[in-house]
């Protein structure tokens, strides 16, 4: 990518997300989504090769289809209600079409197949933006129209997403695909609690962005894209050996780490609404995520093949680029749970 074009591209992505999040008019919301989508394609093709080009095409076709469905739903709702206000989405069919379009943009099951493939075909930094920043605009739309959503359909999509994300990551050795399937699972948790407590979705999204950003930054420092490369962490960057496992355990939602907080709060919210069966199903299926995170931890800190550490240790470690925000992110990833009562009190 041309360095001169980067400020324009990233500012367009930021502006598109901001327009969508702050607008209450359907037309400007759609315009913001399109700005975001079109400006993100050069980010995916930052390294020009056939794999990144294929990933960008898959991304464009999926997002364009979702945008057409969304535009059709907006026009249908406007014809019936005579208004462009997002809070006036009262028509059942328009609401269903908007939910389908947002599910495609968020990569929720059964529209999730593009997420692992696109993430795998892009660099780690582009994959980080795809799995974090690109979620903000669709979730802001779902947040604004949450009172008019079909609860049964949304819970069905959420459970399907948790199942697809948990089962899809079991047989993977590519780290980017594993994080993509983890993102699908987290989207299921966020959307499941949206009809009951939209603010809980924002809390879950915030913690998810912190955890995913930390994981991508650590893997980017390690230059690891497969589980085999993770086993070389010890002799490449020794200080990453305890940090990667703690971050992955937090992503898996293991107490007393930060990742346990949103799952705990969401299960409590379901309990208040007498939805014990749904919360039990979600929590049980999510245990599969913890299993493949444990596989990565095993590769990172336990598997040291084929020789002992003394033989493998380098006499001089590689120099890494400074990452000033990484210590703060690591602290938030592991130590946020003690202040959770205060955060839940605000919600």
Task: State the main characteristics.
single chain, mitochondrion, NADH_UbQ_OxRdtase_chain2, 18 helices, 347 residues, mainly alpha
The biggest sheet amounts to: none
- The class by helix and strand makeup works out as mainly alpha
The unreliable regions are: none
SSE order, as H and E?
HHHHHHHHHHHHHHHHHH
Number of helices: 18
Domain NADH dehydrogenase subunit 2 C-terminal: 290-344
Family: Belongs to the complex I subunit 2 family.
Membrane topology: Multi-pass membrane protein
Pfam families: NADH_dehy_S2_C, Proton_antipo_M
Structure description:
It is built from 18 helices and no strands. It has 347 residues and is an all-alpha fold. It has two domains: 1-149, no CATH class; 150-347, no CATH class. It has helices spanning 6-22, 26-44, 50-81, 92-106, 114-120, 124-131, 136-144, 151-168, 175-193, 198-222, 227-230, 233-236, 240-251, 260-272, 276-302, 309-312, 326-335, 340-346. The longest helix is centred in the N-terminal third of the chain and has 32 residues, at 50-81. 72% of the residues lie in helices and 0% in strands. Helix 2 (26-44) packs antiparallel against helix 3.
């Amino acid at each position: 990518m041309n360095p001169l074009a980067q400020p324009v591209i990233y500012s367009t992505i930021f502006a598109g997300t901001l327009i969508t999040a702050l607008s209450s008019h359907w037309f400007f919301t759609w315009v913001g989504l399109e700005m975001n989508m079109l400006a993100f394609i050069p980010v995916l093709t930052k390294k020009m090769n056939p794999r990144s080009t294929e990933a960008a095409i898959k991304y464009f076709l999926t997002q364009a289809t979702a945008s057409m469905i969304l535009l059709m739903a907006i026009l249908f709702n406007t014809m019936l209600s005579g208004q462009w206000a997002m809070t006036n989405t009262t028509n059942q069919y328009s609401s269903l079409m908007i939910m389908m379009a947002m599910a495609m943009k968020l990569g929720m099951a059964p529209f999730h197949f593009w997420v692992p493939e696109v993430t795998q075909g892009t660099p780690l930094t582009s994959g980080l933006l795809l799995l974090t920043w690109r979620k903000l605009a669709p979730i802001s739309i779902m947040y604004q129209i949450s009172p008019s959503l079909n609860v049964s359909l949304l819970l069905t999509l959420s459970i399907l997403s948790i199942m697809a994300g948990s089962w899809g990551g079991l047989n993977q050795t590519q780290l980017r695909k594993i994080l993509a399937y983890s993102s699908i699972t987290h989207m299921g948790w966020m959307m499941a609690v949206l009809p009951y407590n939209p603010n809980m979705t924002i809390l879950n999204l915030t913690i998810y962005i912190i955890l995913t950003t930390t994981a991508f930054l650590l893997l980017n420092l390690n230059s690891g894209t497969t589980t085999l490369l993770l086993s070389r962490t010890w002799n490449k960057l020794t200080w990453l050996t305890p940090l990667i496992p703690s971050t992955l355990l937090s992503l898996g939602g293991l107490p007393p780490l930060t990742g346990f907080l949103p799952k705990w709060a969401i299960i409590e919210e379901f309990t208040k609404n007498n939805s014990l069966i749904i919360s039990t199903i979600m929590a049980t299926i999510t245990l599969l995520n913890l299993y493949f995170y444990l596989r990565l931890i095993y590769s990172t800190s336990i598997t040291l093949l084929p020789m002992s550490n003394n033989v493998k240790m380098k006499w001089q470690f590689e120099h890494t680029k400074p990452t000033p925000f990484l210590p703060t992110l690591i602290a938030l990833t592991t130590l946020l749970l003690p202040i959770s009562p205060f955060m839940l009190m605000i919600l």
